[in-house]
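Fill in residues.
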């Protein structure tokens, strides 16, 4: 019987030190050395860790591994964006590298599919399979950093920012999200500033309250509607935690946070003639008056089969100008990678749906009678 090896990417520093002490009888500094090899040098070969004694290297080779998701497909956009399909088990999640003049952002997935059923999101239409492990979350960053490092001759900028805005709802995977964030921030890990790591949530209040006081990173909230009626129509999670519950939790988090500098980023996807009217802008401005924020407008990115459309430029501009009348800081997100379906709301991966959502959708579309027992 073959014993499954322990993947060291599943441990943050505290967990790795505990494993080395309890399972290998080694001191903390040895765990720190290994962590530095993994994240500073992108090393997954114990034989190359030359400051580790041979006996320990042999132990590690026998009992452990350093296994990140591998790239099963890469697509390159004309604007420099790269979308990787990363293999996790027998499925794919998607990870997106977005280079800009002063930064390079990596958009990371937290789940295989998504359990939330936001009506405008392509990922949500794929159904849900499972949460990603720590190694599969941080492994996306590790693999992407290695891929970029292999392309140094192209002049690609190293990763400076990470956003948890890929497939899935991060706060429904708290057990694995927190250690992955710790590794991103750790000086022995990727050493990113807490202001350069962003978690986005659709409104999982229980998870956000759990984060409060436990870890400090930048927060973005997926709001997308200025009132409960409309939000519940396009984001069913609103039936569990309504807007006021959500914003109260947001205020508690930013009050405890240094990373957010007292403000939260509000993400608002503009859907043509759904939530993009002047009346919606006035309502949104009033809604956010007690929550310090920056509002980021995201023109809808179409995907096959979607009933929604991107608003005209005039409607987008009118919405922004209406919000600015209330002295809100308002930006319009520049669409990146839409030619390879890597833009916001377009990520799909390869998901084995456990919710049967995709089958139910196919049945409805084809008008096939559903047999009941």
């Amino acid at each position: 019987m073959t014993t499954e090896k322990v993947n060291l990417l599943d441990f943050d520093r505290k967990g790795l030190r505990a494993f080395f002490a309890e399972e290998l009888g080694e001191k903390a500094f040895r765990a720190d050395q290994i962590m530095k090899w993994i994240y500073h040098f992108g090393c997954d070969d114990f034989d190359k860790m030359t400051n580790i004694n041979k006996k320990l290297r042999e132990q590690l080779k026998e009992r452990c591994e350093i296994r990140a998701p591998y790239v099963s497909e890469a697509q390159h956009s004309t604007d420099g964006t790269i979308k990787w399909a990363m293999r996790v088990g027998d499925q794919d999640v998607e990870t997106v590298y977005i280079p800009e003049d002063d930064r390079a952002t990596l958009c990371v997935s937290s789940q295989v599919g998504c359990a939330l059923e936001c009506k405008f999101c392509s990922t949500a239409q794929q159904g849900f399979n499972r949460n990603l492990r720590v190694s599969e979350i941080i492994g996306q960053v590790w693999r992407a950093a290695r891929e970029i490092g292999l392309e140094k001759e192209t002049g690609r900028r190293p990763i400076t920012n990470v956003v948890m805005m890929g497939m899935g709802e991060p706060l429904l995977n708290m057990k694995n999200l927190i250690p992955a964030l710790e590794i991103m921030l750790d000086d022995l890990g990727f050493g990113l500033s807490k202001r350069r790591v962003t978690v986005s949530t659709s409104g999982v209040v229980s998870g956000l309250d759990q984060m409060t006081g436990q870890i400090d990173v930048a927060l973005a909230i997926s709001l997308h509607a200025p009132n409960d009626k409309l939000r519940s129509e396009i984001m069913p999670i609103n039936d569990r935690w309504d807007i006021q519950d959500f914003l109260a939790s947001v205020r508690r988090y930013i009050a405890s946070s240094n990373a957010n500098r007292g403000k939260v980023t509000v993400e608002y996807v503009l859907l043509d003639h759904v939530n993009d009217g002047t009346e919606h802008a006035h309502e949104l401005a009033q809604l956010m008056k007690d929550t310090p924020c920056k509002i980021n407008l995201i023109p809808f990115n179409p995907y096959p089969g979607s009933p929604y459309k991107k608003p005209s430029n005039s409607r987008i501009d009118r919405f922004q100008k209406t919000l600015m009348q209330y002295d809100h800081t308002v930006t319009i997100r520049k669409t990146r990678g839409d030619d390879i379906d890597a833009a916001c709301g377009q990520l799909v991966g390869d998901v084995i749906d456990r919710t049967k959502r995709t089958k139910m959708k196919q049945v409805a579309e084809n008008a096939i009678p559903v047999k009941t027992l």
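The longest strand covers residues 91-99.
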